[in-house]
Amino acid sequence: xxxxxxxxxxxxxxxxxxxxxxxxxxxxxxxxxxxxxxxxxxxxxxxxxxxxxxxxxxxxxxxxxxxxxxxxxxxxxxxxxxxxxxxxxxxxxxxxxxxxxxxxxxxxxxxxxxxxxxxxxxxxxxxxxxxxxxxxxxxxxxxxxxxxxxxxxxxxxxxxxxxxxxxxxxxxxxxxxxxxxxxxxxxxxxxxxxxxxxxxxxxxxxxxxxxxxxxxxxxxxxxxxxxxxxxxxxxxxxxxxxxxxxxxxxxxxxxxxxxxxxxxxxxxxxxxxxxxxxxxxxxxxxxxxxxxxxxxxxxxxxxxxxxxxxxxxxxxxxxxxxxxxxxxxxxxxx
Amino acid sequence: xxxxxxxxxxxxxxxxxxxxxxxxxxxxxxxxxxxxxxxxxxxxxxxxxxxxxxxxxxxxxxxxxxxxxxxxxxxxxxxxxxxxxxxxxxxxxxxxxxxxxxxxxxxxxxxxxxxxxxxxxxxxxxxxxxxxxxxxxxxxxxxxxxxxxxxxxxxxxxxxxxxxxxxxxxxxxxxxxxxxxxxxxxxxxxxxxxxxxxxxxx
Lengths: 334, 202
Known about the structure:
The complex is a heterodimer. By secondary structure, chain A is mainly β. Helices cover 6% and strands 33% of the residues of chain A. The termini of chain A are far apart. Chain B is of the alpha+beta class. Chain B is built from five helices and twelve strands.
């Protein structure tokens, strides 16, 4: 009798585990990724991986999809690359969808190969909304396309982003196995939470290092160097309007867009090699994401003794002042 | 010894006769099976303007096929499967999002409006219309008696043939990239033979 009871208990447990699926992660997560929407935005987690749900359930219960998430983006909301990668599958020509498997073939989607054996997938995208082209290499945070309801989508509203990391499909394959994934800023978000994305911004900079403070006699020149890393997803291109990075003068001394006593172009105090009275250019025309931009510029000793400070801040001209302000050089004239 | 020698030829001829009879019987059975198989295949005539032959056991999926009304681009599609409706519904209940296993090991014919009468090659080489996948190949083949574009290893189909008819484009495709998801007995050769039977109606 005891044996029969034990057997019954074991069978019940096995049956329950088969019906409910594992309640804990079975393997190490894929990490180093950010949420698949732009920095600073937050969207509801409509659905978590099927392994955390009661299956068979509404979705994400079949093995290829069982580590997928649904995020409640609205129509036209941008999706973002969770990691740097290359577009290996690109479909944006469909403009229909509904809560029926027959619509499944009409999903617009992107598959982004991260180059490490894994790819991320972005489904139900908006017709002709691609921000990326076929075979394009993009950096983490780069927008891919707008969210929508193309393909097999359910719910009211049905608009959402179906997202997962999968093993990279070989040529000719459309289906591979999704894997457990953990976002840097949110881990594995629970259903009905709305995690805020810390994905890369379009333009962002991080100060790395710079030359030392100096003591100069009046009129003496000193070539200073500062290094900022491009931590955004777009290239800094000096000659391209809208992505041209510079250092600009900043507060408190001399103040935003104010000429400095220790530098400046012809016609400005110092007559040094600055781009203008208030701007310093990088030494190269382009700086790719993750690369370092070098800014080399002359400092000049002002005519009267004192301690002078030059605060600078990286800027994309006409677009945005970037992070890591508070950097300054100090010139002492004895 | 004489008795044995006398019997030997008789036994040998019996053996030959027996073997011949069984060969004839086998050939007859094969012939009958082929006739039955041929008789069991059916011709499906679609409202999208084509015919296709389906082997025994295959059918048009009522679950996955769809006619789309009021869309400027899509007219709909037929899907041909060997799975039963029950099997398809079981697979469908476990997915949502990506097409999933119910869409594997099937032949589909999609119909599109083509008001500007783009050619087969123009359509197939447009990433927006046909999608794009790394490693895909595009070539021109003879299909249904015409030279048309074939897209292999594309983003949506393992192989797709683009058949232009006046005002419309018909895409004949195989979803065959994940054989582990095929229904039992389905092979790439089966899908190829169904696709090869396609005929656009005038």
